[in-house]
Request: fold
Amino acid sequence: MNKKINLTQAAARLTQPFTHIVVGQVDDYCAYLSRFQGSYRFHKHAKDEMYLVLEGEINIDYPDGQCVTLRERESIVVKA
Reply:
């Protein structure tokens, strides 16, 4: 039987910034729950990524200088 995940309870296990846990997997794709705080160095990914903000907000900076702010319950797919 599949196990359901309570994201609030899972998030409580993330006590340190810039840590993550796998909350699900479909084929070769994983869904991570992460805790962020402050800034993180600019980087690129080999594949598209989806971000969903449960609490707080994050800024996603693009190489062209554009910045997108995601607030609670907002999501975006960032192309590789």
Summary: The chain has a mean pLDDT of 92. The chain has two domains: 1-38, 43-80. Helices lie at 7-12.
